[in-house]
Structures are given as C-alpha cells and as structure tokens.
Design brief:
8 strands; globular; alpha+beta; five-stranded antiparallel barrel; 172 residues
Length: 172
C-alpha cells in the first residue's frame, strides 16, 4: 500500500439551520473492521448514535467526501470513496445506503488504486491552499470520468478555482 493516509476528521457538535433541510450521513467506525469517515467537508451538525456510529448533517449545496473501508480476516474487502453535493430541497437526488435523504453524486470509485488517486487529487488541491469542499463540482465529475476510463486526470489549478468562484457568484 502507498503512504497516502486519510485520517478521520473530528468536528465540533453544532446545531445550525433547519434539520428538515439537512442531508444526513451515518458513518460507522469499528477499528480494523469497518472504518468510514468524512475526508473533507463542513458538517453543520453531529450526533453520536452509539459507540461505533455517528450521524453528520450537511447544509444544501455543500460538497463533502466520504471514505469507506472494510476488512475481514483475509484482508480488505471494501475500499470506496464518494464525493457528494447536498441537493437543495425539491431537486432530484441520488440515494446511497448511508445518506438521507440523498444528494448529487459527483464522484464514486472503488478499489484501492482508484481511491488512492482520489486521495492524491485531494492532497494536491489542499497543497494549493484550497479547501476541497470549495473545489468546482465540475472538477470532481472530471476526475470521476477519468478514473472510470483509466485516463490521467487534469490537475485542479488556482485559475480554474477562481473561474469557478466567479461563475458561482453569477449564479451559473
């Protein structure tokens, strides 16, 4: 395995906004068996369900990344990474087993080599001083498509990021 590490991120418990507008992500952490965590993103609420499960709430329009890993006695059986954008109320959305009610899936990949490429892309964005949660949704779709076709992806640039912020400020 590579030296790429993605540590679980802790967030403070907050209660912001109307719970009806939030999208909830339920994650399990059972050391060495099932490990799921938010790699990036800004939850506005956090609830501890029990010793192994937590539920995070995200506001409409926000982007976050979820890393999921599972193993059994013989080794890794699941290595997945999903990047989602929380859907606004009344818009179509995709559902996933750990996501309620749903969101827009920008990137979904499985298998360690592809997950590693996603983690490298996230690290490269962070190296630019950019929060991956603020990166363009189009870039995450581009990365997903390149991973699917086993093609090299373009790197995210500061120029691309500025263009995304200008486009977003115009409501496009």
């Amino acid at each position: 395995m590579s030296s790429i590490r993605s540590e679980p991120r802790q967030v403070g418990a907050q209660n912001i906004g109307c719970e009806g507008d939030l999208t909830f992500v339920e994650l399990t952490w059972n050391e060495g068996q099932i490990e799921q965590w938010i790699r990036f993103g800004h939850p506005v609420s956090e609830e501890r369900i029990d010793h192994h499960r937590r539920r995070f709430g995200f506001a409409p329009g926000t982007i976050f990344g979820v890393n999921r890993w599972a193993a059994n006695a013989y080794g890794t059986v699941l290595s997945r990474f999903d990047i989602l954008q929380v859907a606004t109320p009344g818009t179509p959305m995709q559902t996933l087993p750990y996501l309620r009610p749903g969101g827009t899936l920008l990137l979904s990949t499985h298998g360690w080599p592809k997950v590693e490429r996603v983690l490298q892309a996230i690290d490269a964005i962070e190296a630019l001083g950019i929060d991956p949660a603020d990166a363009s949704p189009d870039y995450w779709r581009h990365l997903h498509n390149r991973l699917t076709t086993a093609q090299p992806a373009h790197t995210y640039t500061c120029l691309q990021h500025r263009a995304w912020f200008k486009r977003r400020s115009l409501g496009l």
